[in-house]
Specification:
- The structure is a homotetramer.
- By secondary structure, chain A is α/β, with parallel strands linked by helices.
- In chain A, about 40% of the residues lie in helices and about 20% in strands.
- Chain A is built from 5 helices and 7 strands.
- A 7-stranded parallel beta sheet of chain A has the order 4-3-2-1-5-6-7, with helices on both faces.
- In chain A, helix 1 links the parallel strand 1 and strand 2.
- The longest helix of chain A has 16 residues.
- The N and C termini of chain A lie close together (about 10 Å).
- Chains in contact: A-B, A-C, A-D, B-C, B-D, C-D.
- Chains A and B meet through helix 3 and helix 4 of A and helix 3 and helix 4 of B.
Chain lengths: ~150, ~150, ~150, ~150
Amino acid sequence: MIISVIGAGTCDKEIYNIAEEVGRLIAQKSATLITGGLGGVMEAASKGAKAAGGDTVGILPGFSKEEANPFINIPITTGLSHARNIIVVRSADAVIAIAGEHGTLSEIALALKLGKPVIGIRTWNIDGVVKVNSPEEAVQKAFNLANKL
Amino acid sequence: MIISVIGAGTCDKEIYNIAEEVGRLIAQKSATLITGGLGGVMEAASKGAKAAGGDTVGILPGFSKEEANPFINIPITTGLSHARNIIVVRSADAVIAIAGEHGTLSEIALALKLGKPVIGIRTWNIDGVVKVNSPEEAVQKAFNLANKL
Amino acid sequence: MIISVIGAGTCDKEIYNIAEEVGRLIAQKSATLITGGLGGVMEAASKGAKAAGGDTVGILPGFSKEEANPFINIPITTGLSHARNIIVVRSADAVIAIAGEHGTLSEIALALKLGKPVIGIRTWNIDGVVKVNSPEEAVQKAFNLANKL
Amino acid sequence: MIISVIGAGTCDKEIYNIAEEVGRLIAQKSATLITGGLGGVMEAASKGAKAAGGDTVGILPGFSKEEANPFINIPITTGLSHARNIIVVRSADAVIAIAGEHGTLSEIALALKLGKPVIGIRTWNIDGVVKVNSPEEAVQKAFNLANKL
């Protein structure tokens, strides 16, 4: 099972804590975590997953694995800038969106276009996104919906 | 000047007519039109622009220029599937969104992320999109905002 | 008909002159020229084609159309870095390689992989490349082989 | 450390055995293996690495992780077709090329363009490729050269 967590590269402490818990729960269920590999929500989810012993993949936009946050153990260096967003969502069995700005919105839209389950916590209000209120609910829904595909 | 028109690959007659008129006005102002090269809004805008003597570029998702609509005179065959969306918006001085579904939403989000002016007619209601009601207004706004960059 | 000309971003005067003549001949036959849009061979071919009244498309690796050489009239800004090479060759009915280094070699290899005709002047000696000695011969062969596809 | 192994999607038994041994040695040295995720050399290297307990990443060209060979434990689904080649080499600290055809040649060229160490076993004879004769020598050279970067 592969779960992608998407969200902005900077975030406040509350969102960081939510993302970290989401990452931890994903790893505890033995799924691989994919993110865009940078800071903010991507870092928090990776931190949580790594602490729980999980694999953390970062699909990086730039030219060097040095741009990955410190909790990525498998950095994939694409050099594709924002075009790497499609890889983040296409590789996932389900996508969890946490807060986020326009980059996250583009990923939500692409995920829905591809027919992937998209679970949202405090994120864009787009038809098709399954809204939840807690990390536990987010990860549970992600697994349930991914298993139905 | 390069204006990209984005919208769904299928659309009703009313939206088709709007897109065709937008394409015509873009070409009359001697701008190059870029679209994703397929049907619906992309075809309509290309049809209008070509009829007015303009260049019509199609940034195609697939593997063959045969997939371009008949009004594309410069087919660019990317083989990148939805990752080609970023090229459509990155190449533009301004983007005009007409109706559209999730693919269009991903392009609107990417365009806003890149700081491009985005003009919208009957499309997603996203902060940052400049809403207009007519083809004339859309093209006028697109040129005005592009010139300010 | 679309012909792509590939070659290094810097070149000596002799290679520049060859590429310029190749571009001129492509435009005289009313084909569209595609290049990677930068300097050297890409610039020379575009200069020749533009002088002959042809369309010159540049598939740019970076983030701004400002990086295009002055003879590109249709800049496509990909932001994909070297991944844009595949677009240059995939969009072509035939590819003409002039001199070139490792970037050109990657494009020759991709073009052969895709089954595109590849004509070479003073370039890499790879099985499958049709070697020629003059711009006239290069363009003639490119059109002949493209028409057989 | 990340080592990418490149080579054709089909190969004979002798090449398969070489690639499998290369994969095994990479994993024994605790490096992550990246390949294009398909058959032939990609499968063999992944098989060897997985048997030795290593992480095996497959950068897939298509739209589904189902296309990955059975020895990939981290499938990355790009949907980018041959444009995914650049990701395979850009993500690597060193690249080992085993036999291979035009796709492999494009990856060798891109790796050299990016300044990555490229070690070759029975592969294209291109200046810049470090030729070796055995899996042991290939992996040793790859680690030595990667560590010098």
